[in-house]
């Protein structure tokens, strides 16, 4: 079974610092996503990315967030100036096409101190 | 606003004791309803997609059903390895995002 991978598994950073979370989607997939889950809360959608541009984003995904697909394999989420409330598990997901299931990665736990 | 509510929040069963988990949804137009399994500290693992009322899908001890207002995940003769949080999510027509419920934490005691 193909897998989405994410690095690092755990990132600790100080408030105000920039972080980059990295994901390697499944190789032939076309649609890429970031979700987050604050401890004890629901999984929340952040952004979707297709054809090298953002196709949909949530209210959470403000100017402090950005996504990039810098090469043919990586998909990154950058938080410019982290806040305490950004502490969460961040999941990357990818999908091959319409009507095809979405695969989630194992997540990166971000802790902002 | 699109909403997904799962019940119960937690369920504890004995091995072999069958039960059902509920997912109620309110959406403007349903494109698909998804069930995922999530183990502690892991990402959601895909189980099923249902697209229209009356549809059913099965996988091993799990069976998912869909009506116009809710979905059920039936677990038949569960084993301890079925212990996990089960997440329900909907995709609305015209949107990419999944809207998740809060999950049902299922514990199967041997």
Discrete helix count of chain B: 0
Structural class of chain A: mainly beta
Rg over alpha carbons of chain A: 13 Å
Fourth-level CATH superfamily of chain A? Immunoglobulins
SSE string of chain B:
EEEEEEEEEEE
Q: How much of the sequence of chain B is in beta strands?
A: over 45%
Number of strands of chain B: 11
The chain-level mean pLDDT of chain B equals: 95
CATH architecture of chain A: Sandwich
Summarize the structure.
The complex is a heterodimer of chains A (113) and B (110). Chain A is mostly beta strands. Chain A has no helices and eleven strands.
Notable traits:
heterodimer, A: 113 residues, mainly beta, Immunoglobulin-like, seven-stranded mixed β-sheet, four-stranded antiparallel β-sheet, B: 110 residues, 11 strands
Description of the structure:
The complex is a heterodimer of chains A (113) and B (110). Chain A has 113 residues and is mainly beta. Chain A has one domain (5-98): Immunoglobulin-like (Sandwich), CATH 2.60.40.10. Chain A is 0% helix and 51% strand. In chain A, β7 (65-68) and β8 form a beta hairpin. Chain A is globular, with a radius of gyration of 13 Å. Chain B is mostly beta strands and 110 residues long. Chain B has a single domain (3-109), classed as Immunoglobulins (Immunoglobulin-like), CATH 2.60.40.10. Chain B contains no helices and 11 strands. Chain B has strands spanning 3-7, 10-14, 19-26, 30-38, 45-50, 56-59, 62-66, 70-75, 84-92, 98-100, 104-109. Chain B starts with a strand and ends with a strand. The mean pLDDT of chain B is 95. Chains A and B meet through β4, β5 and β10 of A and β5 and β10 of B.
